[in-house]
Amino acid sequence: MSEYLNLIQIITGVLAAILIFIGIFLSAKKLNPEKYEVIPVKTTVISTLLIILSLLSYAVTKMCTNMNIVTEEHYEPWALYFASLEEVIKLFGFIVFIPVLFRLFKPRSRKENPAEEEVSAEKEEN
Fold first, then answer.
1. Which end of the chain is more exposed for a tag (fewer CB within 10 A), N or C?
2. Is 57 a residue whose pLDDT tops 90?
């Protein structure tokens, strides 16, 4: 049984790392200060869902760890999972808000330099 738990732990740990990387990368890729555009809602929702899935996957990793530790007592797997999920949310729950924070950083509108405004005003007068 312990071999399977180790295998499950490795797979879900790698899956959690991949999902969190993809979730943050999707939002970060849309941050482009040169275009002055807000990140689309669809991208923010997809990134947030990927990060939530990664936290759920990491909770399975923690559950396998807790299952190895708690061998004397007979807990239901769901009880261990929810306890592990609570622990993961306490430690890493803030990561879910990273795509939302990226969306809240609205780009400033493009402003011309005062010297450029004077030159463009002079060109319009001529």
1. C
2. yes
